[in-house]
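Reviewer 2 asked us to include a model.

Predict the structure of this chain.
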Amino acid sequence: LPQGTPFEELPALIGLLEQERRRCGLEGPVDIGANLAPIYVGDPKWDAGSDTFSGSAPRLAERLHDYRSIGVRHVQLRFRSRSLDELLDQMEAFHQEVAPLLEGGFP
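Predicted model (structure tokens):
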């Protein structure tokens, strides 16, 4: 699948991939990944860009569950930040606040 495919387009592409695998006689699971838009845990007090997905830990976890529900099994997280310290803070916030809400992890 192309990198950076918008979420809304992924279900159709995943369906096409599964269809083509069956047509070729390929069976078994396939590992599908996705690159997410940049995320920010909490509400940035600065312009983080219109493509940044931000908000509370439950909101971010729900978005990750949306990806899992369509067959995505791993994601590339990109944290929006302005400095190394802020990046590390964002990673820690994700680990402490969002990750525990991902039931059974994100296989």
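The mean pLDDT is 91. Residues 29 and 45 are 42 Å apart (CA to CA). We have added this to the supplementary material.
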